[in-house]
Design brief:
single chain, Rossmann fold, seven-stranded mixed beta sheet, 10 helices, 40% helix, 17% strand
Length: 289
């Protein structure tokens, strides 16, 4: 995958894949399990890269677009800021930050997802300044306003291991990870790596599935995850096993307060969270002192 160009070239440094990542890259299973071995997770997302964004829309009933907009509003990214969008997948989330004028590195362990994102970005550049880009989203859906002519930031796609990020210390003003921390084998170590690559005073934004705050609704939601979502995926997805893992990993993930404690333990300060969709998703924010 490409390295950041121009101004962003000094963000990177040579850092290899973590021991956990190397150990399991050779022979991944068909789907990941809750041990979240990196090779299994990467292979699973490689397999669904082509229809990933479409299926996210279907399986979330369009809510994923609202969640992305909320992340943009909460992150408050501005022109000229350097953003690391970790677990960026196809880079859909990165588009929102570059629309605000930030320079963004879309980093992911799945090279297949990044390749799909690069191809889509290339098609968007060929399409020129039209109302709809290659992912089918209008400028307004990407976080800007239709007809907005403000300068867009740059996007670079970089393959990287969240447990050993290939960037220098203090390289970024903002680090974000949306629906990806749950897929890391060691979330505490990943949060510490994010802390390392964030400048003092910089910000962390973690958007992740969480626990609905109304117990009866949460019980119904978990039944949907375990029984209904995989059934829909079997009808719509080429690799439905990935969505069985998705459901299992959401149910296994800690609630809001527990995740906040994990973020604090990694060295972050001023940790707080915002519930979305009654807590089905939570956006945690923090600062590096």
């Amino acid at each position: 995958m490409s390295e950041p160009k121009g101004r962003g070239a000094d963000w990177t440094e040579e850092r290899g894949t973590s021991d956990e990542g190397r150990r399991h890259l050779e022979a991944p299973r068909r789907r990941a399990n809750l041990d979240k071995l990196p090779g299994d997770v990467a292979a699973m997302f490689d397999a669904i890269a082509g229809r990933y964004d479409l299926l996210n829309d279907i399986l979330s009933a369009g809510q994923v677009r609202l969640w992305r907009r909320a992340v943009t509003r909460i992150a408050r990214v501005g022109p000229g800021e350097r953003v690391l969008d970790l677990a960026a997948g196809t880079g859909t989330s990165s588009l929102i930050f570059t629309a605000a004028g930030a320079d963004c590195v879309a980093c992911d362990f799945s090279l297949g997802m990044l390749q799909a994102g690069r191809l889509r970005a290339g098609r968007a550049r060929l399409a020129g300044p039209r109302g709809v880009r290659g992912d089918g989203q209008s400028p307004r859906e990407q976080g800007g306003a239709g007809g907005d002519r403000s300068p867009r930031g740059s996007t670079s796609f970089v393959g990287g291991d969240a447990l050993r990020l290939p960037f220098r210390d203090g390289a970024f003003d903002v680090v974000t990870i949306s629906f990806g921390l749950r897929n890391v084998a060691d979330p505490a170590a990943a949060l510490a790596e994010m802390h390392r690559v964030t400048r003092p005073g910089g910000r962390l934004v973690v958007c992740e599935f969480s626990t609905i705050t109304i117990a009866p609704v949460d019980m119904l939601y978990r039944r949907y995850l375990i029984n209904v979502l995989p059934a829909i995926a079997r009808r719509t997805a080429r690799s439905p096993e990935a969505y069985e893992y998705l459901a299992e990993s959401i149910v296994d993930w800690p609630a809001q307060r527990e995740l906040a404690g994990l973020i604090e333990a990694a060295g972050w300060s001023a940790v707080r969270w915002h519930d979305l969709s009654m807590g089905a998703v939570a956006v945690h924010v923090a600062r590096r002192s």
